[in-house]
Amino acid sequence: MASSVCRDWEGTGVGMTYEWFLSAGERGNAATGIDEGGAWTEGNLVRPLVHGATYFRRLYDELCGLRSGDRVYFTDWRGDPDEVLFEDGPSIGSLLCDLARTGVEIRALLWRSHSDRMNFNSQQNQRLGTELNEAGAEVLLDQRVRRLASHHQKLFVIRHRGDPDADVAFVGGIDLCHGRRDDARHLGDPQTAPMDPRYGSRAPWHDVVLEIHGPAVGELLRCFVERWDDPHPLDRRTPYRMVVQRLARMPRHPSKLPEAFPDPPPAGPHPVQVLRTYAHKHPTFPFAPHGEYSVARGYLKAFARAKTLVYVEDQYLWSAEVTHRLREALDRSPELRIIAVVPRYPDQDGRISGPPARYAQLEALRLLESDRVAVYNLENEYGVPIYVHAKVCIVDDQWLTCGSDNFNRRSWTNDSELTCAIESADLARSLRSELWSEHLATDAPDLDPISGFKLWQEQAATLDEWIANGCLGPRPPGRIRRHSPHPVSRLQTAWASRLARHVYDPDGRPRAMRRRNAF
Length: 519
Description:
Elements: E1 6-7, H1 17-20, H2 24-27, E2 40-50, H3 52-64, E3 71-76, H4 92-101, E4 105-111, H5 122-134, E5 138-142, E6 155-159, E7 168-172, E8 205-206, E9 208-213, H6 216-228, H7 239-247, E10 270-278, E11 292-293, H8 294-305, E12 309-313, H9 320-332, E13 337-341, H10 354-366, E14 373-379, E15 385-388, E16 392-395, E17 399-403, H11 409-414, E18 417-423, H12 425-440, H13 449-468, E19 480-482, H14 490-504, H15 511-516
Parallel strand pairs: 3-4, 4-5, 8-15, 12-13, 13-14
Antiparallel strand pairs: 1-2, 2-9, 2-10, 3-6, 6-7, 7-9, 10-11, 10-18, 12-16, 14-15, 14-19, 16-17, 17-18
């Protein structure tokens, strides 16, 4: 049963929340159970955790308080069992295995990834799953997605038997894997992940997760349960996959989940709406038989209300379908400014992998050419570029999102994604101020959109000029550089455009929605 503190705009919404959030009807998925008591939950406490090191330490603290009979549920795109949570601390795999052996009930859904030879995560996810299953947990490798799609959701839910006030969920962009444990210094994770060599031997990494207490924890758990209870086979039943599953001692079918604990009571002032992407596929998701595109729909509703500032931190920002909607917002609102922070280079910028990503971003950014739009990348104090993996959007210091989705068509239509939207002026402004304080190296980031937009322009121009002149004298403050993707040649465009559209950024919508370019 959904929480009694849920609200729907057709009922008794609080404040302006009904104007920013989707109604249950606007979600467009009558089959899901997360809207049963309303389209969002009130009374949550949300704390943004900036940086992987911050998140991993909080996760460790919460896990260390668990006892026999408590429960853990998580989903992940990539999990490395040997990823250390903090210096001289335990690995995520060893900590979870110890908890499982002491009677903590652990269930997980890991993406059944493509081959490691394609720079994916099949061996790591399989190893994490095998270790946890041998310790008494139940971990499934899940491939119930479209071809060329992934389960990209990153969710961790912790439930306490008999103490729902202590329950917590974490939602955001950070996987439990190598490369993510960085902090505000941005010197990188000592346990590295393969990256473009221009990011150095330890790629600096910028990311964000939300820590959530309150009724939304129950909604997020229902997202996990819907996937867990999907009766379709976990992967494509080829002889090869069956042998691999048996050798790895991976379950082929989930066990029945025990009766859920009561939802947590109200814990704070924040309304939270859960947004998701599930593609239209065969066999269908029983909880989204026509797909679900509430991530895209949530953004479109917020963009339609944007008046002053859209601030984005995103790994990709490379789909024309997405930037077209931002262009419409600019045309509607003459005072609107857009600031976007993206990586300087793709994570893999090889001869084949690089041109499609750069082509897609160049095409997307052409739609946003305006003196009211500025795109930046980041570098640390040593001049090493910082890989921006965060998935954050803040609109008018009123509505914010953080989750697994990127600003591309893949995330809006094709992969499974999970994001939380919050309507709170205090929280939105606080998160923007925290991010700007770090990027701009200033203690006074609480500026109006026009002044803030100019400050970003001035700081980036100053740092760019200092570097162009040979780095003479003290380094100017801040980490921001004006972003200009490396061009793609005409010959590369001939093949990169097709690869970008059909492989890197595929469309998971039904044909009728594609024809209308609707979400």
